[in-house]
Amino acid sequence: MPYPHFKELRPAYGFDDVAIAPGRITVNPEMTDISMEIEGVRLGIPLIASAMDAVVSPAFAVKMHELGGIGVLNLDGLQTRYEDTAGIYQEISETPQDKATAFLQKVYATPVREELIGRRVEEIKKHGATCAVSVIPANTKRVAPAAVEAGADLIFVQSTVTTARHVSKSVRGLIFSELRHNVKAPIVVGNTVSYDVTLELMEQGVSGVLVGVGPGAACTSREVLGVGVPQVTATIDCAAARDEYYRRSGRYVPIITDGGLRTGGDVCKAVVAGADGIMLGTPLAQAEEAPGRGYNWGMATPHESLPRGTRIKVGTRASLKQILHGPSHLTDGTQNLVGALRVSMGMVGAVNLREMHDAQMIIAPSIKTEGKIFQMRGLGS
Amino acid sequence: MPYPHFKELRPAYGFDDVAIAPGRITVNPEMTDISMEIEGVRLGIPLIASAMDAVVSPAFAVKMHELGGIGVLNLDGLQTRYEDTAGIYQEISETPQDKATAFLQKVYATPVREELIGRRVEEIKKHGATCAVSVIPANTKRVAPAAVEAGADLIFVQSTVTTARHVSKSVRGLIFSELRHNVKAPIVVGNTVSYDVTLELMEQGVSGVLVGVGPGAACTSREVLGVGVPQVTATIDCAAARDEYYRRSGRYVPIITDGGLRTGGDVCKAVVAGADGIMLGTPLAQAEEAPGRGYNWGMATPHESLPRGTRIKVGTRASLKQILHGPSHLTDGTQNLVGALRVSMGMVGAVNLREMHDAQMIIAPSIKTEGKIFQMRGLGS
Amino acid sequence: MPYPHFKELRPAYGFDDVAIAPGRITVNPEMTDISMEIEGVRLGIPLIASAMDAVVSPAFAVKMHELGGIGVLNLDGLQTRYEDTAGIYQEISETPQDKATAFLQKVYATPVREELIGRRVEEIKKHGATCAVSVIPANTKRVAPAAVEAGADLIFVQSTVTTARHVSKSVRGLIFSELRHNVKAPIVVGNTVSYDVTLELMEQGVSGVLVGVGPGAACTSREVLGVGVPQVTATIDCAAARDEYYRRSGRYVPIITDGGLRTGGDVCKAVVAGADGIMLGTPLAQAEEAPGRGYNWGMATPHESLPRGTRIKVGTRASLKQILHGPSHLTDGTQNLVGALRVSMGMVGAVNLREMHDAQMIIAPSIKTEGKIFQMRGLGS
Amino acid sequence: MPYPHFKELRPAYGFDDVAIAPGRITVNPEMTDISMEIEGVRLGIPLIASAMDAVVSPAFAVKMHELGGIGVLNLDGLQTRYEDTAGIYQEISETPQDKATAFLQKVYATPVREELIGRRVEEIKKHGATCAVSVIPANTKRVAPAAVEAGADLIFVQSTVTTARHVSKSVRGLIFSELRHNVKAPIVVGNTVSYDVTLELMEQGVSGVLVGVGPGAACTSREVLGVGVPQVTATIDCAAARDEYYRRSGRYVPIITDGGLRTGGDVCKAVVAGADGIMLGTPLAQAEEAPGRGYNWGMATPHESLPRGTRIKVGTRASLKQILHGPSHLTDGTQNLVGALRVSMGMVGAVNLREMHDAQMIIAPSIKTEGKIFQMRGLGS
């Protein structure tokens, strides 16, 4: 008689559960190289602004480019539904909280206007900036080629959960290997959290994989649907797939952590977990340049009877330059994310992001220790 | 000299300790089959209303049937003690909180009237609804045959802790294998939380097993008695027994998770843990159709000197249809439980409940991560 | 080159970290035998009142005996320092909080009067009650024989941490094997938390071992001294020593859990962890019969410059009978401790305490699950 | 196909996560020897005041010496920038909180005056006290020889993270083996948290190693940079390196835990984790003799755009003598640290610090148990 089989549960960790251990040598932060590359598109800093309407406008994307990163423009949002977006943003910010969800539903009921797709891409390209755009899977075949024709350099195909296969009666799922032949630009695909799916997507030829389900992009998923994997474990798993795929194929496909990062410490931990790039939403929605005027709202495809997005106030805290490059006047880790990453790499002894992947990370679960850190902030011992 | 033997403690998990990991493929939610079967009795949706007086009246049972599920009528409660239950329910809801326990004790001191048993069953059957009733072990041999004769389709035999054997000086425990010969209807038995007891009950021929001790049905058990097993671990253990029994006998006996579920996320996790059906109390006591008028109270057999039930206000939140099938106007997971289950199955890539049993589940214990999710609710990242 | 040796840390658990799993059979609570024996002294119930001045007076000890348990009279406290204790107790209860510690220090500065030792023992014996007394190690050789001569049936020798050997320049430690020859009564020794010490004490011939350092008896130990072992793990370890000693010698020496128990659930868990007896302080200081008048204060030998005891208000909540045997009007587990133990044993299927030692215990660490239980108290699901 | 490689995370623990288990024998606290030695410099008690301006002035260092310990004077702070420090301290304490950081930045912008280095050392030496001074790595070669010439007995070379090698374009890192030939005094180096770095530093000939990154010295590191290792695990790891180096070389190099200790319990746990000495900041900033006047502020080398130090109020609580040697009027473990260490060693049965290293330590993570301890403070059970 065989021993009965009990389902096994695997522990998983988020940013607040872990910390980075310093390394055997230290490196001067100024000597660190934090650039990344997505199939030939090079970013000086590995920070990517989320394809959220409250974060990335064409002007914001240009600014991100100037500061070394990139902003992803949502081609299924306000920018392609309205010619005059300024007025819409103002109305959203002025709607009382109890009417915000209903107003957003109304605003997003307006259909996308095809002619605005190319125009928004051009607004970015004409300033010499690298242009990244985001499309939803259902529209990809139609929208992506048009965007590329208008000059888009990177296509992000995003849904809450992406796999290489989708079973449906009515719709045939996207086949990324086919898509690669029709779209003449690198394609970043997501979101996923698993080793298997990451490996399969890379085998289909995608140019990058977005990591994260639950914390962030579909952030009420855990309560409503029970689904979600803490971001550190998700990143570790997908990084293992990237490394395995690289070993097999010799092609290095970057993974981009997306969801729930708030501080420089989170950025550093994501890289140690294996991320090549970091996608940021709320931390950048707080920039003076963000179109959301101190608000942010969810972009998850609305499931009519399962609402998963509402407007929340995030405040306007500093210029984008200060958030990314400092100087920081705060000690909460929300400013000078690039400086934090470089100093952290210096402590670990990592000269570039791939060396940072090899740093040690520990589980440090104590709430009380954390509490003490808060209480003791700024003290020498 | 042998090494000393120290008692071993095994970790156990509840709904808030775990999350579901997305799968390798995705499935269109509309393609999912969420039906279940209890020995020939088929339910379109796997949701079962608890045999609590504040939840299931004959009219509520009919409504549950119309919406695809089933409601279990308590044959040892108000419905079989009073002819005019409407008046009793009103009195209970109007009693001040400090007198509620005493009033409930008085109300339940009235004896059960045998003639009301058949009448309540008929009130359900005459609308063409499937009829499930609940009896306590001590009354089973007397009440169950009468209920079946009146048309009951399913018998639930419930006590706080059920085993296949009970040691007592005065009472001979129920022998379920004998009961099966005397009662011509499927018999669902519970509650238990262990592999061994589930296997033994199935070997005695029961038609279903209710899982859950501690969180829910006897919910002060843990503080008063120290007894209780968190629901995810209990479900996993009993599901392992079901699978082993199926392997041995070829008979598939469903297990029904009972206790402590509040949200769609909990329902999804229960299925991934191995549940075939889900019993819900408080979430359905909040329906407009619930007889409890916004209150709920415990059904545990009162142990004179160890009180374990009191009336609490749960509020009336929506129609039963909205709670089960949506649409949902809330993001807290308390509405559209069926939609949540289908969408979650879609993310996991499960076409039916038994495929959902094979999904991966993780331990995600971080309180802070949870906190962040709350704080970030509705945001894209 | 050998692998470096890192110190290993072992996880340890307290009452709130664990829960009892129900068993394979159930037993009628009325059939359970919860008696225990300490070298021929039999207790009908395994509950022992702590040797604290706020808990046990001679009258209280008589009452405990009548209710099936036993109360341990402190021979190094108020009862042997003052002829008229009633007045002292009243003064203590009437001292303002900010002067309480100083007043207690003054009260306990009065020397012990030898003639009161025998008198207090006789006050208990004349009512036909079993008499247990507590002495500190330094006074044991002098006080214990006098107490036994006056009729004491059980001697408790207690200090914060007891081992079989004590290293000191000035004082020769107690040798329990010698003590056994000079004191003609069973000797219970404590406190300890370790397998090794328990085994060594039993090999020296003690009649019982008190388990617990940290939670309770020296309850600021953990903060001030860093010392303390959570009570479930301590009990499991000492129970393993008892079982090993029994295996070797055939003599069964009971262990008594002492410290930090508050509820019926804690009592049940202590027994499952392996305890033969349960020592209770604060829960009994809340009895109407307790001499402390709603207060309790520490008995730890005061270390002049490391104060570890102060007076705290515990309130008067019910009669001793109600606390021990019910009926309970509360659902927080603080009343009817005996009833709770019997019902819990029934769920586990244990007919006596030694069968209860074999029950399964789980680690159920979720704070949120616990929270939910509170919120859901009294509900059927 | 090899199994994919997932990054492994190792659990780590801080003071609040652990507790000390009592030992097999007990020892009279008065018999314990708690002295330590750093390459011939002997300390009667193993407590070292942090090189923070708010803690150690020359007068404070003299007082520490008189009480058995040592205070480390910061040679890169106020004492070497200002002739009249009293005025500066007063100004700092009188600056409003919202201007404190800016004022501190201004105060520390004044350059170090070389002639003050020798003078401060002499202020300590002229009272016959052992003199320890702290220098930052960049200034070590210049400042350390001058300090030694003036009479300094111990040199501490401290930075946030120290390794035996530093990679930089502009600066050649300190080579400690070279430094040892140029500085005629024992050199203590830090901070580190790892086995490898500790071993490497000892092989380079350092006289002692400071342990701790994250909790304390650079205490916002975890949030800003993600870097930090809880102190118990860090101490265990570095102690393993010390023991391995001792096994290889026969030279015993003490390790000093630095960061986050608040109570006597923390001091005891640090020693059990393997520390030979304990560096204290805030607990001593609360002494009446501390120059900070009830404030403390961070000494971390300010990274212009990543501020990591601010002034916080710590209050003045007792004389240094009372904090170190008692008597204590409090039960929170902040006074009589030496007494606590001796009593704890007595419970463990350790006669000296190296025996205390062998005590057992447990993981006792329960928040609720901790809560109960607070609630029960001072009670006998």
Which key terms come to mind for this protein?
homotetramer, 381 residues, alpha/beta, TIM Barrel, eight-stranded parallel β-barrel, two-stranded antiparallel sheet, 16 helices, 37% helix, 16% strand, disordered C terminus
Give a quick summary of the entry.
Four copies of one chain form a homotetramer. The first copy, chain A, is an alpha/beta fold and 381 residues long.
The 3D shape of chain A can be described as globular
Give the biggest sheet of chain A: 8 strands, parallel, barrel
Number of spatially distinct domains of chain A = 1
Strand order of the largest sheet of chain A: 6-7-8-9-11-12-13-14
In angstroms, what is the radius of gyration of chain A?
21 Å
How would you characterize this protein structure?
The structure is a homotetramer of 381-residue chains. The first copy, chain A, has 381 residues and is of the alpha/beta class. Chain A has one domain (15-77, 112-293, 333-376): Aldolase class I (TIM Barrel). The first copy, chain A, contains 16 helices and 17 strands. Chain A has helices at residues 58-66, 78-81, 85-94, 97-107, 114-125, 140-149, 176-182, 195-203, 221-225, 231-249, 264-273, 282-285, 320-325, 337-348, 353-356, 367-376, and strands at 10-11, 18-20, 25-27, 36-38, 41-43, 47-49, 70-74, 132-135, 154-158, 165-167, 187-192, 208-211, 255-258, 277-280, 295-297, 311-313, 361-363. In chain A, the strands form four sheets. In chain A, strands 6-7-8-9-11-12-13-14 form an eight-stranded parallel β-barrel, surrounded by five helices. In chain A, helix 5 (114-125) runs parallel beside helix 6 (140-149). The longest helix of chain A has 19 residues, at 231-249. Chains in contact: A-B, A-D, B-C, C-D. Chains B and C meet through strand 1, strand 10, helix 8 and helix 9 of B and strand 2, strand 3, helix 10, helix 11 and helix 14 of C.
